[in-house]
């Protein structure tokens, strides 16, 4: 499963995709996540 996270105005917009790239869920997380190199967070 792939989780993509996009930072928007201090919130994290997360979307979950299955192996067929079908969207399975999405939510806002009220935390700011940053990768080690300062790039976008994709988990």
Strand order of the largest sheet: 1-2-3
Mean pLDDT: 61
Cα radius of gyration in angstroms: 11 Å
Range of strand content: over 45%
Q: Estimate the helix proportion, in percent.
A: under 10%
Structural class: mainly beta
Shape: elongated
Helix/strand order: EEE
Tally the helices: what do you get? 0
Uncertain runs are none
Report the major sheet: 3 strands, antiparallel
Describe this structure as you would to a colleague.
This protein is an all-beta fold. It has one domain (1-33). The chain is built from no helices and three strands. The protein has strands at residues 2-8, 11-17, 23-29. It has a three-stranded antiparallel sheet, with no helix packed on it. The protein is elongated and about 30 Å long. The mean pLDDT is 61.
What order do the helices and strands come in, and which of them pair?
Elements: E1 2-8, E2 11-17, E3 23-29
């Amino acid at each position: 499963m792939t989780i993509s996270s996009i930072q928007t105005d201090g919130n994290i917009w997360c979307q979950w995709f299955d192996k067929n790239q079908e969207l399975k869920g999405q939510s806002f997380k009220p935390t700011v996540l940053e990768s080690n190199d300062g790039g976008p967070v994709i988990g």
